[in-house]
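The following record pairs a protein chain with its ligand, adenosine-5'-triphosphate.
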Amino acid sequence: MVNIQNLHKKFGSLQVLNGLNLETPENGIIAVLGPNGSGKTTLIKSILGMVVPQKGEIKINGKKIIKHWDYRKDIDYLPQIANFPGNLSVTELIKMIKDLRCKPARDKELISLFKLEPFLDKKLNNLSGGSKQKVNLVLCFMFNSPLIILDEPTTGLDPVSLIRLRKLIQNEKEKGKTILITSHIMSFVEEISDRIVFLLEGKIYFNGTVAELKKATNQQDFEHAIANILSENHA
Ligand SMILES: Nc1ncnc2c1ncn2[C@@H]1O[C@H](COP(=O)(O)OP(=O)(O)OP(=O)(O)O)[C@@H](O)[C@H]1O
């Protein structure tokens, strides 16, 4: 699905991605992990064409993305920080995004899943952080695209909403989709991921299953396996 070769990205003198290679499977949930500032969002934004790398190639379904921006209509994206006009109501925002994308949308089903009905007429400025995140999840999941990219989807969610999100992501996987996800909640990542991709020093340091990661680090639990990579590498 996504094939990345020799990706380099610098911001000024800061080398964030330094010859990164990654190939994702056709179907499944891939967690992109790494310490703060390791380049997870930069990688995601490079796939989306929002960050332009200095070197390297990204292909989606075998096609180079550069200068062929229409590939983006087949990606659903949840940004880490979504900045929508705060004076819009939830209903107005959903309608605006539907008008822009011009695709069939299943907003009602998702509003019901995240129990957002009481908030539909409220302005975004007046919503709690968790409710805003649920609105962002509705916007992201309503278009049924084959590739879903979720940058910190768990932010601000209570435990019940986390369970709903997990089921939603798993249902999308069952439909044959590829889901790339970043999250700092390790229990969530462990439960949901088919593969773990760990970024360190601008490259993929580890790419494998949770079980393989535990074995490679000689740790029985996932959080300790991740901590082991970080302490071994002084990250
Ligand atoms: N537009 C930009 N201009 C300058 N520096 C940037 C820009 N975007 C990101 N960076 C820097 O690149 C590095 C990687 O940032 P990035 O957001 O990709 O990390 P991350 O792994 O997603 O971090 P976190 O876990 O904290 O979300 C950071 O040092 C960040 O400050």
